[in-house]
Amino acid sequence: MNPFMFHTPSRIYFGEETSLTAPDLMREIGGSKVLIITDDVLVKTGLMAPIIDAFKNDGNFEVTVFSDVPPDSDVKCVGSATAVGRGQGCDCILSIGGGSVLDTAKAVAICLTFGGNLEEYQGLNNLSTKLLPHIAIPTTSGTGSEVSMVAMIKDSAERKKLLFGSRFIAPDTAILDPKLLVTLPPKLTAATGLDAVTHAIEAFTSLSTVSVFTDVLCIEALKLLFKWLPIATKSGDDLDARANTLVASTMAGIAFTNTGVGVVHALAHATGGEFGTHHGMTNSVFLPHGMSFNMDAAGDRYAEIARQLKFTENSNNEIAAKTLIDKVEELASSINLPRRLRDMGVPALDGQGVEDLANIASTDPAIMFNPKEATIEDIIGIYERAY
Amino acid sequence: MPAFKNTDELNAVMELLWGTIKDDPGMSSKLIASKLVVRFVYREPEGRLTVDCSDGKTMLVSTGDTSNKPIIEMFMKADVAHEFWLGKVNVPVAILSGKIVSKGPTPKALALLPVIKPAFPMYLDIYETAKKKIASCAE
């Protein structure tokens, strides 16, 4: 067995309408001037109103709402939210939204806690103390950001992503309220769900960092996702489907934040950075190709997943592993996710363009957790097969 | 037993190691092209080593306090550095567990790991040579 470190700093509360208990939970972890970070869509749909009202009616909180987080947040947005929070003297954060909102809130928590410029805090494990109290409420089932110890923020001006990784970044509390997801459109449900599938599969095959703890989380998350994601996509108001995919996403999040991910994420980050493609959707396109590439190093692990999920009883690892790849492809197709990069509007690149993109992917931190080394040529090969 | 008795020994080993890397065009050209300034901050014993490729033409290696501002800083025990150069450190695990702490745009530094790999098999000789040299100076 590998030596490993397993850590999960966030308390997790699950249940219908648990989001309305956020004021009680915030009181437990401290803070009275709450900065609520969310996006405009959630405010407009009325999803936010009951939660904001819960804080206002509680009588113990001053509430400031920042709802200008774009789909792919950046340094500028973090700066604006920080300025608002600082101006109001906010001492705790509630984030409600998808991965972009939650990552923005993590970065704002860093800035409000330590002051100064966000860029100063880039790095891994370099934060020295706990951040402001932070409760995260995800409204998608995919990113795992509500429990992850990392945040990635785009620097649009410099065309780069800033990486922050520390156990102090993980929110203190994650509230999983499936009712908040019933209005999530099918396409986003499918794409974010495949992001969670990718987390679980890549975490399970991050061979240098896996542990029995992460194995259990990955397998159970995959069982739930393969069963419930098609239902959640087809019938958004099915609360069982929403609940199971939400919990599975958080489980996969705990797993990957302890293991890292791999070449699929590295390519998705590079492609998304270049062409603005949706992260989960891009992962779903690259996943079968990344798995095929990793077959010789991780085939046994794919086979184990296939047998645990009862996709096959075949004892031949290669056949069982290929069954899993077929099942991933089937799942993605069944929920109408694009299967090629070209179907997502990614333009055809010339040789130099592909090489440049492969170079970006090769420097993505995710790649160091891949079960085998991926050269530039390997990455180009995966990209071209996915195109 | 710690790999380095004191800061002088640590500095001697790291200066010889990085001098060897600098003299190897296969490694140094890629490091210089990165234009990075990386500072390694060691503890037990304490030490600092800065590799400055900021002008994109030369690679300056210095120990102790320097005025050049690092783009990336890597913090670790000197023993972890020793194990790293021996090829015995699982870098992903070391990063996840906090044995190696980084400050700054870490992906840029991680991207250079394959570049310095050819120094791994040279390290043990360098380590022993530098230690002998320090010991003979002390006598």
How do the strands and helices of this protein lay out in sequence?
The complex is a heterodimer of chains A (387) and B (139).
Chain A: E1 11-14, H1 22-29, E2 33-37, H2 40-44, H3 49-58, E3 62-66, H4 75-87, E4 92-97, H5 99-114, E5 123-124, E6 134-138, E7 150-155, E8 160-165, E9 173-176, H6 186-204, H7 212-234, H8 239-259, H9 263-275, H10 279-308, H11 317-334, H12 351-362, H13 376-386
Helix pairs in contact in A: 4-5, 6-7, 6-8, 6-10, 7-8, 9-10, 9-12, 10-11, 10-13, 12-13
Chain B: H1 7-23, H2 25-34, E1 37-43, E2 47-52, E3 60-63, E4 72-77, H3 78-85, H4 91-96, E5 101-103, H5 106-110, H6 113-116, H7 120-138
Parallel strand pairs in B: 1-4
Antiparallel strand pairs in B: 1-2, 2-3, 4-5
Helix pairs in contact in B: 1-7
**Superfamily (CATH H level) name of chain B:** SCP2 sterol-binding domain
N/C terminus separation of chain A: 38 Å
Q: Which structural category fits the helices and strands of chain A? A: alpha/beta
Overall, the morphology of chain A is globular
Low-confidence stretches of chain B: none
Give the helix tally of chain A.
13
Instruction: Give the topology string of chain A: H per helix, E per strand.
Output: EHEHHEHEHEEEEEHHHHHHHH
Radius of gyration of chain A: 20 Å
Tell me the CATH architecture of chain B: 2-Layer Sandwich
CATH fold node name of chain B: Nonspecific Lipid-transfer Protein, Chain A
Count of the separate structural domains of chain B: 1
